[in-house]
Every structure is written in structure tokens, then in C-alpha cells.
Design goal:
- The complex is a heterodimer of chains A (about 160) and B (about 110).
- Chain A is built from 2 helices and 9 strands.
- Chain A has about 160 residues and is of the alpha+beta class.
- Chain A has one domain: SoxY domain (Immunoglobulin-like, Sandwich).
- In chain A, the strands form 2 sheets. In chain A, strands 1, 3, 5, 6, 8 and 9 form a 6-stranded mixed beta sheet that branches.
- In chain A, a hairpin with a 6-residue loop joins strand 5 (about 85-95) and strand 6.
- Chain B is mainly β.
- Chain B has a single domain (about 5-105), classed as Immunoglobulins (Immunoglobulin-like, Sandwich), CATH 2.60.40.10.
- Chain B has a 5-stranded mixed beta sheet, with no helix packed on it.
- The chains are: A alpha+beta (about 160), B mainly beta (about 110).
- The interface of A and B includes residues 29, 102, 112 and 154 of A.
- Strand 7 (about 115-120) of chain A pairs antiparallel with strand 6 (about 70-80) of chain B, so a sheet runs across the interface.
């Protein structure tokens, strides 16, 4: 789990948050809400699935100047053996128009539970990653990102 | 066919965890944008990427509109035997882009 905002003053954080709140609505599409993320999580992970915090580490920049391409690194604490490994890693967004961002399917042949990609972020938000282990347990990690220029959903 | 780039070791020791990086040139168009006369630009995305190693799937990725243009991914696999790494990107229309790389394991 990442405590990414510890280096930031409360004021900076507040300013960033307020900045996003006063941004005009982007285009004619309402952004998703944390509720629609919860729905997507229910659908993917099973309704009411027990998700324990921990073991999953998300690395995202604290401040993304351009939401069109934000580097994302994920890793999970796992021995990655035949008996105990990560089967899947799911990434969810609470503010993008589509709550499912990306999914990775791993296995004992992965050797390590770490992946990297680049994602779009439509707004300042918290990104959640959930790992499904071979024993069926679910673990999660989150990261907060401030986005100054959102991924283009606008009408330009 | 979209251009692709692959970074994978040509040689590895048996049992070594190797890192593979791939990228495909693709707009990963979300379907949420409009062109300069206001028409919606239709969605056009890669939805799936797989890597098989000597015929067996070792990695798979499901992509949505939230993956940035020119989808990039880095992942790992254990070097088990000399063989071909085959990479396949499938778009929403079912079109497959295929690339491969040989790895020699000693």
C-alpha cells in the first residue's frame, strides 16, 4: 500500500482537490463515481467479496501532469510457487468513465508478481488494485493521484 | 498491421526470472472523444494481449479504455526452455497482431 501523499502539505493537497472540484464537467459525459467502481468490483470479484488490505503495492506518480498516459507499476508480495501464487491483478478507477482499467493474469510461471503499464486518468482520484491469490483470497492496495490535465474526454 | 516493439532477452539461464516489455502502436481510442466537427470518434481498442512460451500461455492482459494509447506492458516469466515467445494483441474486432521472439535457455 502506498502512502503517497505524506510528502505533501495539507494545503497543497487541499488546493489540488479543490482545483479538481471546480473544474467544469468534462464534455457531456459524467465521470464514474466510487459507487460505479464498487459495482464493477462486485461484478469482477463477486458480490460482497472479502478484500483484505495489504500485499499489493501500487506505484503511481503523486502528481500526474497529463492524465493521458500515467505510468503504473504493480507488485504483490507472493512467493509465486505452484502452491501459492497470484492468479490475477485487477485495477479499478473511481473517476474514469470505465471503472475497469486493466487486468493481468499471472501464474507460477511468472516467477514474480510485478507488472507495469501506462493508464489514463480522467480526474484526480484513488486507484485500487486487487490481487486474487491461488487460495482464493483477495488483497488490495491503493494510490492517490492528483491529475492536473485530464485524459481527453473533452470535445476538442 | 500496427507496429510493435518487443524487449526480451535472447539468452537466459534456466530458472532465471526474465522481464519482457512490449508495446503496440495503437490509438486505444476511447469512444469518448469528438472530432473537430463534433462527431463522436468511435471506440477502437486492443482488448487482449497474451504471451505464450513454447506453446503455453504464461501471461495475459485484459485492456479497457483506461489503458493509454500505444499500450505498453512489462511482465516477468521464468526461463524454462529454449523456445519461442509468441505475443498476440487482439483488438475489439477480433483482429490479431502476432509477433515472436526466440529465447535460448542454457
Amino acid at each position: 500500500m502506498r502512502r503517497g501523499l505524506e510528502g505533501m502539505s495539507r494545503r497543497t493537497l487541499l488546493a489540488g482537490t479543490v482545483g479538481i472540484l471546480v473544474l467544469p464537467l468534462i464534455g457531456d459525459r459524467a465521470l464514474a463515481t466510487p459507487d460505479s467502481m464498487a459495482e464493477a468490483m462486485d461484478e469482477v470479484l463477486g458480490k460482497g467479496a472479502r478484500i483484505k488490505p495489504g500485499r499489493v503495492k501500487i506505484e503511481l506518480p503523486e502528481l500526474a501532469e497529463n492524465g493521458n498516459s500515467v505510468p503504473l507499476k504493480l507488485s504483490v508480495e507472493s512467493p509465486m510457487t505452484a502452491a501459492d501464487h497470484v492468479k490475477a491483478l485487477y485495477v479499478f478507477s473511481e473517476r474514469n468513465p470505465v471503472s475497469n482499467v486493466v487486468r493481468f493474469h499471472l501464474g507460477p510461471r511468472s516467477g514474480a508478481a510485478r507488472v507495469q503499464t501506462s493508464i489514463r486518468l480522467a480526474a484526480t482520484q484513488r486507484i485500487t488494485a486487487v490481487a486474487r491469490m491461488s487460495d482464493g483470497s483477495l488483497w488490495s492496495g491503493t494510490a492517490d493521484v492528483i491529475v492536473t490535465q485530464a485524459a481527453c474526454l473533452d470535445e476538442t | 498491421m500496427p507496429a510493435t516493439r518487443i524487449v526480451a532477452p535472447a539468452k537466459a539461464r534456466k530458472g532465471e526470472v526474465i522481464e519482457i516489455k512490449t508495446l503496440i502502436n495503437h490509438p486505444q481510442e476511447t469512444g469518448f472523444r469528438r472530432d473537430n466537427v463534433g462527431r463522436a470518434i468511435p471506440r477502437d481498442i486492443i482488448t487482449r494481449f497474451t504471451c505464450t512460451y513454447a506453446g503455453e500461455e504464461v501471461f495475459r492482459m485484459d485492456l479497457f479504455t483506461g489503458v493509454a494509447a500505444n499500450p505498453f506492458v512489462a511482465f516477468t516469466t521464468i526461463a524454462t526452455e529454449t523456445g519461442d515467445l509468441v505475443f498476440e494483441w487482439t483488438d475489439q474486432h477480433g483482429t490479431v497482431t502476432r509477433e515472436q521472439a526466440r529465447i535460448v535457455v542454457t
